[in-house]
Write a structure and sequence with these properties.
single chain; about 160 residues; alpha/beta; 5-stranded parallel β-sheet; globular
């Protein structure tokens, strides 16, 4: 069983606890020599919300623009989060910046998006937050549980910062 880790999918939320996930993913990347793929999964809008938008915004271009803007804003937040991470962990260090092979924002059911992206990118490992705080921190959140159920590769679940 001589299987190396070549690609790691780092699933980043847009909350403050994503720094610990990024740190852990980078540590694993350095230890294994693997490339890092950073992903933020945006939950699709519910059918009720989409129907309400369609009823109230009849112009298709305007509606598509609003939906696109939602993803663009998530992409910008991810870029800002990564820029903040680089500023704290050495943006000038080439070995750090060359680890990131891709950075994506994808829409859909997050657990399904994460597992699908891991498969598409040929990832050997998924790193993500537990998404639970306080007394129930020993239990994974809904998305994390969904990834654990669906994933065909190991999943590293990073606890929230203290």
């Amino acid at each position: 069983m001589d299987r190396s880790i070549e690609n790691i999918l780092c699933c980043v939320g847009l909350r403050s606890d994503s720094h610990v996930v990024l740190e852990q993913a980078f540590r694993l990347s350095f230890a294994t020599g693997a490339k890092l793929h950073v992903l933020h999964a945006v939950k699709s809008l519910d059918d009720d919300v989409m129907n309400t938008l369609r009823v109230n915004i009849r112009d298709k271009k305007t509606l598509q623009g609003l939906i696109r803007k939602r993803l663009d804003e998530a992409r910008q937040q991810l870029e800002d989060k990564m820029a903040n991470f680089w500023s704290l962990h050495g943006v000038g260090d080439e070995s750090v910046s060359t680890r990131v092979a891709s950075m994506e924002v994808a829409e859909g059911y997050p657990a399904k998006v994460i597992v699908g992206m891991a498969s598409k990118l040929g990832c050997d490992l998924i790193v993500m937050a537990s998404n639970k705080h306080g007394f129930t921190a020993s239990y994974a959140g809904k998305v994390t549980r969904g990834v654990l159920k669906r994933s065909h590769v190991p999943v590293v679940v990073v606890p929230p910062p203290e």
